[in-house]
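User: Before I run my own analysis I want an independent prediction to cross-check against. Here's the chain; please return only the structure tokens and, at the end, one sentence I can use as a sanity check.
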Amino acid sequence: MARFVVYHNHSGDVGHAVHLLRLARALRRRAPGLRLRLVQAGRPQPEFERRWPGEVVRLPRPFTSVADFGPRVPAAPSAALLRARARRLLAFVADADALVTGFFPFGRLECAPEIVPALARVRAAGGRTFASVPLPYFVHPRERVGELLAHCALYDRLLIHCPAGADLAYMARAVAREGRVTPAEFLGTFRTLGARLAFTGYVLASPRRGEGAAAGARTVLVHRGGGAVLDGLVECALRLRPLLDARLDLLVLAGPATAPARLRRWRALARANGARLERWRDELHEDIRRCAVVVGPAGGAVYEALRWGKRAVLVPFLGSPGRERSDQLARARLLRDLCGATVLSPEGLTSERLAAAVRAQLARREPGPKKRAGWYDGAETSARLMLDGNPRRGIPGPPA
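Assistant: Structure tokens:
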């Protein structure tokens, strides 16, 4: 019986965890006997880990990723800690037929000292290696692109979870604001990777049988994604109730990474303004399908809004001075062009500006589901690519 080991590190977010969970379920659907071991290399995420369809193990003493969202850059982990974690990870992959890493090598660069030996161990034993990358984007400055290419050479396939011809062009245009690579250098890096890349389509939740877009919805859904950024968006949203039609339902999701003290303060603000606040929802994709307009950052939830053709107001996270990020700006522009989303800057955001954007979206006809062949099949396509073609290690292929 084959075993896949999946390495997951994070910096307070849940988006990558959700991708890996959907991939794991797709793998199980195609190969029910497959054993799946999740190596949690970041802080424990019980809400995610309890849903994993297999074994969960943890690396010791998780360190905060230096790719952390905020302006504070935490101290890098010690060499001794990295060696200890690398040894433990080698033990976890000793019986692996395949190793899957989340986001690395396109990000999480500080994890290389523990990931690279594990990749080498699996390949030396005849196993396969896969990168699960949620978007066509890398964090390397120009002088470290060679390092990226060297790490990519350790993988059999680099699975980029978007359709070919969609996000990449938007990412290339937006990356210019970061100043670390030019758009031409950005695109040239992806071209260099050539056939090793596989654009799988978006990894989304599987629709239920007969499921379609919701009609006559009255809910304004505001969320800030799975991370711990854009506090200002939540603050503005909690004051929206008096500025919107009283017949609308307003649901504000604080996000699973919200600290307890901040959540208590926001609950008091919600009560004072008549808003409905929840920490998080287990099936955000369902809330997006059923809402009248979705308001939030331009993370992975954008693709659910795209699939169902929802009216949307997007407030992309742009990083911090000296640590700018452009990936959410690129996603926001994608949804603007395909669904008519309104894009607002987080700088100077007010409840009044947010309410005006919501009212303008509600005045539009909903775009409706965007049916594009293969765009939303990323989980199944990825599972097929990972399971096909390794009979010498006994990895089961798709059923006949």
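Sanity check: The two ends are 18 Å apart (CA to CA).
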